[in-house]
Design a protein that fits this description.
Blueprint (H helix, E strand, L loop, with lengths): L1 H9 L1 H4 L8 E4 L2 E7 L16 E8 L7 E6 L9 E15 L2 E6 L1 H5 L6 H12 L8 E6 L27 H17 L5 E6 L25 H8 L25 H18 L11 E6 L3 H9 L2 H4 L4 E5 L9 H10 L2 E6 L14 H15 L3 E8 L1 E3 L16 E3 L5 E4 L1 H10 L7 E6 L4 E2 L2 E7 L5 E7 L5 E7 L3 E7 L3 E7 L1
Parallel strand pairs: 5-20, 6-7, 6-12, 7-8, 9-10, 10-11, 11-12, 13-14
Antiparallel strand pairs: 1-2, 2-15, 3-4, 3-22, 5-16, 14-15, 16-18, 17-18, 18-19, 19-22, 20-21
Helix pairs in contact: 4-5, 7-8, 8-10, 11-12
The structure holds 2-acetamido-2-deoxy-beta-D-glucopyranose (6 copies).
The site of one 2-acetamido-2-deoxy-beta-D-glucopyranose has 6 residues, from loops.
GO molecular function, one term: glucosylceramidase activity
Protein name: Glucosylceramidase
Keywords: Glycosidase, Hydrolase, Lipid metabolism, Signal, Sphingolipid metabolism
């Protein structure tokens, strides 16, 4: 007791918790933290602790905790009750280097915060990118329209405008996305990696003449249209395989793996380099940007080709419709091609009410996927729309509304931080870019209901993220060579991040 008091005394400066707590509001499916003109909860920046001390940050469903911090020591006397999970860290066995965690700037994700007052807008972006927020490290930017736009459009909707005389950014960019990107960059706690993704080129450049439905780029490699598509700055085609579905409801442009390979080899790759973008060294050209089901075929066609391989930095994957293909495909392609895999889109829908205010279940689904993808060589995870409205929109595509980590109220006098926001923060604030995943014994500790994933941070700290989806407390019995053993209570229905130096 005396010892722990002394230790706490030594730690006093970092123990002064300046964080503003959650202002809770309860809905049938759970709790949100309310932000308004006067209040918005924060999370303290992380500070190192002396050798032997572990900081434990906990969020839970039933106790309504959000990033509540406590301290514990290796070799301590704590003996919590519950099923024991033995995990031994292997600090010298390191896996993939992480790019980080983040979210996406669709039109909807900028239009919704755009309705907030300047003070609340700042609070929203501090919550995502700031030092007193989740410290996101990734930002995905839609290039022109997507399903989460209020209308179908492109940057040049004048038919057959081969000279691109009418090419222009739109009000969604000028008044919303660009100012908010600048704000996020100003507030960011770390160097954020921004990347773009194109849903559809101008409709007149497609075989079917509309932004949605089944259609590919007109003509073929070497044609004026393919040159134009490249000039428009298309970096990655979002969900290229959707462009072969006749009824596909929103912006798309079909590419087979072979078409994307030819586009990279004949157009995008050489011309990016000619323009001074040294891909893949200083500019990360990514392929696919679609579900895991396509990973095998696309990497086989594009990365196994020695010429296109040279231009590509990594493979972008989405989380939809992929259950039939095991995540071990990511381990295989990383081992084979030595290029990163980045998850570039995930989103949840609660049910008939797509938003599900306060839903813990949505957040657990994110925790599960981030844990299992990172345990299978994936280097980062990007959520879809950062912020949506009370109906999960706006979207022009009909019936595609989703939930999001921040929901903006109808009159924009409040916004709500969903449990999903805290789930993301349990990763993003801790698993910063440059972290390496650390091996453990057992290799995949836990089950799909209780998982433990460890990382070595570039500042030398070790961070561990766990979740417990079970209705009872569990015990994490963690052993670290040269540090000792620590028995940690992992609360029922909780998310946890641990940090020690
Ligand atoms: C915990 O005990 C182990 C084994 O006795 C020892 O090597 C380690 O230094 C101890 N850790 C701390 C923080 O005292
Ligand atoms: C779209 O699909 C329909 C039905 O399969 C087909 O007849 C048509 O040629 C396709 N259109 C394009 C532009 O690929
Ligand atoms: C790319 O990186 C190299 C060294 O890593 C540097 O010399 C070069 O100037 C960079 N090019 C650009 C366009 O940033
Ligand atoms: C992968 O390619 C094979 C052979 O071309 C094809 O039969 C299969 O349908 C493709 N798989 C997917 C998921 O597209
Ligand atoms: C909210 O989203 C719904 C569904 O897409 C849309 O109909 C509505 O216009 C949006 N409202 C606002 C204020 O953005
Ligand atoms: C915790 O782990 C240590 C080291 O692996 C082991 O000796 C100990 O028996 C474990 N404790 C429990 C309760 O399983």
């Amino acid at each position: 007791m005396l010892l722990s008091l002394l230790v706490l005394g030594l730690l006093a400066p970092s123990l002064i918790l300046a964080a503003d707590p959650c202002n809770p509001r309860y809905y049938p499916d759970g709790m949100v933290c309310v932000c308004d003109e006067l209040w918005c909860d924060t999370i303290d920046p992380l500070t190192p602790t002396p050798n032997g001390i572990v900081q434990i940050f906990e969020s839970d469903r039933d106790g309504n905790k959000r990033f509540v911090r406590r301290l514990q020591s290796f070799n301590g006397t704590e003996d919590p009750i519950g099923q024991v999970w033995n995990v031994i860290l292997q600090p010298t066995q390191l896996h993939q280097e992480m790019l980080g965690i983040g979210g996406s700037f669709s039109d909807a994700a900028a239009l919704n915060p755009g309705r907030l007052s300047p003070k609340m807008l700042r609070d929203a972006y501090t919550s995502f990118y700031g030092a007193t927020g989740a410290e996101f490290a990734l930002g995905r930017i839609t290039i022109s329209g997507s399903d989460f736009s209020t209308r179908p459009y492109s940057y040049d909707d004048v038919a057959e405008d081969i000279g691109l005389d009418s090419f222009n950014l739109v009000d969604e960019d000028i008044s919303f996305k660009i100012p908010q990107l600048k704000l996020a960059r100003e507030l960011a706690a770390q160097d954020v990696k921004w990347y773009g993704s194109s849903w559809a080129p101008p409709a007149w450049m497609k075989t079917n003449g509309i932004v949605n439905g089944n259609g590919t780029l007109r003509d073929g490699p070497g044609s004026a249209i393919w040159v134009l598509f490249e000039i428009l700055g298309q970096v990655v085609q979002n969900e290229p395989m959707t462009g072969f579905s006749e009824t596909f409801p929103w912006n798309t442009c079909g590419f087979t793996a072979a078409m994307e390979r030819d586009f990279i080899v004949q157009h995008l790759g050489p011309n990016l380099r000619a323009a001074g973008y040294n891909t893949p060294t200083n500019f990360s050209l990514m392929i696919l940007d679609h579900d895991r089901a396509h990973v095998q075929n696309w990497t086989e066609t594009i990365l196994a080709d020695p010429i296109s391989n040279e231009f590509v930095a990594g493979t972008a994957v989405h989380w939809y419709f992929s259950e039939q293909v095991p995540m071990s495909v990511y381990d295989e392609i990383v081992a084979r091609f030595n290029k990163f895999v980045l998850l570039t889109e995930a989103s949840m829908v609660f049910g008939e009410d797509p938003v599900g205010l306060g839903s813990w279940y949505l957040a657990e689904t994110y925790m599960q996927d981030i844990a299992s993808t990172t345990q299978h060589s994936v280097a980062g995870w990007t959520d879809w729309n950062l912020a949506l409205n009370m109906s999960g929109g706006p979207t022009w595509a009909g019936a595609s509304e989703r939930s999001a980590p921040i929901i903006v109220s109808d009159d924009a006098s409040e916004f709500y931080k969903m449990p999903m926001y805290y789930a993301l923060a349990h990763w993003s604030k801790f698993v910063v870019p440059g972290s390496r995943r650390m091996a453990t014994v057992p290799v995949f500790p836990g089950t799909s209901d209780f998982r433990v994933t460890a990382f070595l941070r570039p500042d030398g700290g070790v961070t561990i993220v766990s979740y417990n989806m079970l209705m009872e407390d569990q015990v994490l019995n963690l052993t670290v060579p040269n540090k000792g053993t620590i028995k940690i209570r992992v609360g029922a229905k909780s998310f946890n991040s641990y940090l020690y130096y």
